[in-house]
Request: fold
Amino acid sequence: MANDEIPALFLSKVERRFPQADGALEILKGADFALWPGEIVALVAPSGTGKSTLLHVAGLLERPDAGEVYVGGEPTAHMDDSGRTRLRREEIGFVYQFHHLLPEFSALENVVMPQLIRGLDKNQARERATQLLDFLGLGPRMEHRPSELSGGEQQRVAIARAVANAPRILLADEPTGNLDPQTANHVFNTLVSLVRASGLAALVATHNLQLAARMDHTVTIIDGLVVDKA
Reply:
């Protein structure tokens, strides 16, 4: 099977429940979902329906109670914590509503850091970080610390950091939710450009229906299942 015929991310019959005093709260109830290379999919769902849980399970931050999560065709249910951590660092990038940049580091250093953690040579890491920041229009700002950057610039640095290790998958949880509409649109455009240029697969949770309409398609969560949004 050709590599482009394998989903970058595939959830099969995934269940996730949380214990409560009166029993278990079922969030995901046999959810299936496929994300393909080069695809950008919007996840639009009301709060409390399992949107964050889905992203955490897909990103190997939480284990499903049942079912399987495949990353690049590789099953993960059998993996121990160290194996899941390794795969997550190599194959999955995360972007959140708040940038979580290291405040004492420059923009460049923030993008270099995850590459050093993975074991990349420092010079190679700086070269890739510089290329990413240039691509995202931050070349003149790369030596600035987060406090010296605007909200949109901070979020673009966070995007660069998320893809610094050339992941297969990008998971974004409300990446523009903390920005004004004009800045949100600019950040979204750079995110889409990066996805298209790199061929990675992106799942973007958002409440912004205008941005969702510009993605390849939209899914939602209904009764614990991932379904295409009409």
Helices lie at 51-58, 81-91, 107-118, 122-135, 151-162, 181-198, 209-212. The beta strands are 9-20, 23-35, 40-43, 66-71, 74-75, 92-95, 169-173, 201-205, 217-222, 225-228.
